[in-house]
Design a protein that fits this description.
This protein is mainly α and 156 residues long. It is 69% helix and 0% strand. The chain has 8 helices and no strands. Helix 2 runs antiparallel to helix 8, helix 3 runs antiparallel to helix 4 and helix 3 crosses helix 8. The longest helix is centred in the C-terminal third of the chain and has 24 residues. It starts with 7 loop residues before the first helix and ends in an 11-residue tail after the last helix.
Length: 156
């Protein structure tokens, strides 16, 4: 029988707090760059889907809905390229999220990067890369800690 996993966020809270501060700063910079919280939550959900992080999926799906992401958008998110339900900035953000999340196996080609740069200014691109990198860090901490996800009653 194995011991309970170490919740690394609880074991070294100052490091976790610093990562949280980076997320807060990224959200502030996103506002300045004209990126909505809904777009950031799409990044968070998509990266968490790819990584299989149940804790972050539970959290960020709720936050996405709160920020106006529709049930349809969440439902088709794994196949977002095949739909017309996302704005151009969201599509660019999702492409960045997938590139950052899959960086070990799938690099963003120069032509794709150039296309994204044509849709975003440099500040927006930088913020979106940071947002995707930060959620990937949170995913890894939650997955390795096996943060629990329990049933929650639906609220009307």
């Amino acid at each position: 029988m194995s011991e309970r996993r170490v919740y690394v966020d609880k074991q070294k809270p100052s490091i976790y707090k610093a990562l949280g501060a980076a997320a807060i700063e990224c959200r502030a910079q996103a506002v300045e760059a004209g990126i909505t919280r809904a777009t950031l939550e799409l990044i968070n959900v998509r990266a968490s889907q790819i990584n299989g992080c149940a804790f972050c999926l539970d959290l960020h799906t709720r936050l996405a809905v709160k920020e106006g992401v529709t049930a349809q958008q969440l439902g088709v998110l794994p196949a977002w390229r095949e739909t017309e339900v996302f704005e151009p900035i969201d599509r660019a953000a999702l492409e960045i999220a997938e590139a950052v999340t899959n960086v070990a196996t799938d690099h963003l080609e120069d032509a794709d990067y150039d296309r994204i740069r044509g849709q975003l200014n440099d500040d927006q691109l930088a913020v979106l890369v940071y947002a995707a990198s930060i959620i990937n860090a949170f995913n890894r901490l939650s997955i390795l800690s096996q943060h629990p996800v329990t049933h929650r009653e639906a609220r009307d």
